[in-house]
Inverse folding.
């Protein structure tokens, strides 16, 4: 039963990494778009593309936290006690990002809009870095078992956490650029499609370099996980590499169709590979999934609740994304008073 709950949790993490990652990555391109005039078109596309879905993506994060503290309370206690600094920074970044994204649209003066835009963009980088740093600390065994606190600084400011945090930022930016290529093509803007295609290619190359560095760091800091990446988790690693290479090839050739699916496969398989490589531990190599699990009744209840949630919530997500892709949410693209005044 604990294995089934852990599998559900891993799928939720992968889903958040894909959809939430693309959301945060769009903020990265907002940050690097340039000045108000030069970056106006790119920022407008970012805002229009994530406007309908940016709040919905955090449902997955809430689900992850609820399942973790309910199904694996000892692990959750150890993680939050040890990683309270990056987790608090991530929570602050999510709130700041959402507020800045909403307020930027309603501000009239250019100076204030730029300030909110900068906060939105910077927090879009901070949040994935913090989550990646937490993952790096867990993988490298810096979170002790037993529901006790580890080093609040060294647990996430270490070579493994810095590399995984950096990889999370780069992977999110890469995924967002691929999505934005598709979005620009749907709007018929060939210039913006080429703009984000070049950034997607660069993001893929940088992600590959950071991944190689990550393997080198893991070989010494997390030998258990590193060894299993090339045994039990090898299929996921191969799928990630093939997906990333296939998406890169399509992007280089200017073929947008299929690149988005392959990019999603590449990022999702990174998460699945991590989960398989870490198995059977929640906290390598001190706390297994079975040892950390709550009583069977709690796990059964969680699985039932998760199944009901899937039946009730997933159709709404599908409808939201379909309406967005078919551009049937016109209110997100209507200019408001601030746009008219600023223009």
């Amino acid at each position: 039963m604990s294995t089934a709950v852990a599998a559900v949790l891993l799928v939720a993490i992968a889903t958040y990494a894909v959809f939430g990652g693309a959301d945060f990555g769009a903020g990265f391109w907002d940050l690097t778009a340039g000045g108000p005039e030069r970056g106006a078109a790119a920022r407008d596309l970012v805002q229009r593309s994530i406007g309908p879905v940016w709040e919905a993506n955090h449902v997955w994060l809430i689900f992850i936290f609820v399942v973790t503290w309910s199904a694996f309370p000892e692990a959750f206690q150890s993680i939050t006690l040890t990683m309270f600094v990056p987790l608090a920074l991530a929570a602050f970044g999510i709130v700041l990002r959402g507020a800045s994204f909403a307020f930027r649209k309603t501000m009239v003066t250019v100076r204030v809009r730029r300030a909110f835009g900068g906060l939105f963009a910077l927090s879009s980088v901070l949040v994935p870095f913090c989550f990646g740093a937490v993952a790096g600390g867990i993988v490298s065994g810096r979170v002790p078992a037993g529901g006790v606190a580890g080093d609040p600084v060294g647990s996430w400011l270490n070579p493994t956490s810095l590399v995984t945090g950096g990889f999370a930022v780069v992977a999110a930016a890469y995924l967002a650029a691929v999505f934005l290529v598709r979005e620009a093509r749907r709007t018929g803007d060939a210039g913006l499609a080429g703009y984000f295609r070049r950034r997607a290619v660069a993001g893929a190359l940088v992600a590959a370099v950071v991944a190689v560095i990550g393997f080198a760091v893991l070989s010494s800091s997390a030998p258990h996980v590193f060894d299993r990446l090339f045994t039990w988790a090898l299929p996921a690693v191969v799928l990630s590499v093939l997906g990333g290479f296939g998406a890169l090839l399509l992007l280089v050739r200017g073929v947008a169709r299929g690149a988005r699916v392959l990019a999603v496969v590449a990022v999702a398989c990174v998460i699945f590979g991590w989960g398989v490589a870490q198995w059977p531990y929640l906290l390598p190599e001190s706390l297994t999934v079975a040892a950390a699990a709550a009583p069977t009744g709690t796990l059964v209840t969680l699985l039932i609740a998760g199944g009901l949630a899937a039946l009730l919530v997933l159709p709404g997500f599908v409808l939201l994304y379909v309406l967005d892709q078919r551009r049937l949410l016109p209110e997100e693209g209507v200019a408001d008073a601030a746009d008219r005044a600023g223009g």
